[in-house]
Protein: Low temperature requirement protein A
Amino acid sequence: MAPFELFYDLIYAYAISRITATLHLVDNGIISGLHLAEFLMMMLVFWTIWTYQTVYANRFYHHGLVDTLFLLFNLFIVIYLAQAITPDFSATQTAFSLSTSTLFCSTAVQYLLQRHEQNQSAVKRLCSALAGVLGIAAVIGYATLFLPSTWPYRLRFGIYAVSILSAAFGPLLFSNRIKTVPPHFDLFTERYSEFILLLFGEAIITVSTSIQELHITPFNILYYLIIVLLFATYLCMQKLGIDHQRKTGALVWIHSHYFIAVAIALLPVLLLEFDQQQLAPFFTSFMVTLTLALFYFNLYWNMRAYRASGIDLSGKRLFYLFFSLMLWALFSWLSAQWPTVFLSGLMLYLLANLLYLWQFILHPGK
Structure:
């Protein structure tokens, strides 16, 4: 990874850590559906922009002057966008629309320049498709800047969401073109895993906010162990569960990692607010279970799509995933009134899943 790319990833990890500010608006022990939607949308904004730049770098970036200038320009816009994040998304929607649309345009121009430089027709078609998707998303995003302020916020938010969803999932329409020009999958997975590592690092740092006057509580210890176990689980999947030499368009990898990133960003906030008695116990139980489902099922989806030789993904492994999650849901519902019991059970559940993954999925019969 080039130094500029590492700096780029650090800025994005910082931005995602700021996005969780929208989840601190708790009302009657719950986080409203609107605030959750805003959190998911802002996550998707940064994830989509980062993904397009990562895909471009994997296929075309050669550390030339033009690419470096584009990277620095995009980095400046991302820094501005990160600073625009506030708990009240409606107050900064204009900044988001302007910044994201500009970033989409910038990346689209990069793809058009590559289309001009490339000789292979398949690569030209791919560049045209991705530039077209980004161009459409940018136009919709810019259009939201001119919507009447009298329109309901939810309507303006919905139109902006169309812009982001178009950019995020539009490439699925061109999956055949993407498969004909596959990325360097080994480098691609490495870049994603390094970014996920940064998110886990941000999650670990979160525990420091709960340490008061150097007094370590059971929550601090259990929280730390929970994040470490999640990271170890992800690392086992990434290192041992997938075939890094596969020729693939990597669309499953890209989209599943959005949900993995959401889970990693969301869980620390839920646990911290639960410890501070801001969240209702049963709401915490439901949201933590949903977050774990996002994490584990997307790990399974990756191993299913890019499975390494010798691993066991038979139906009984999927059954274990469902059954163990249901057991956790029942336990969490019963224990949510007692935070230490709840967190201890969560830690043991994650440990059991890690051991099961290692012994019965990654090393079956050994």
Notes: The chain has 13 helices and two strands. The chain has a mean pLDDT of 90. The radius of gyration is 21 Å. The first helix runs from residue 3 to 19.
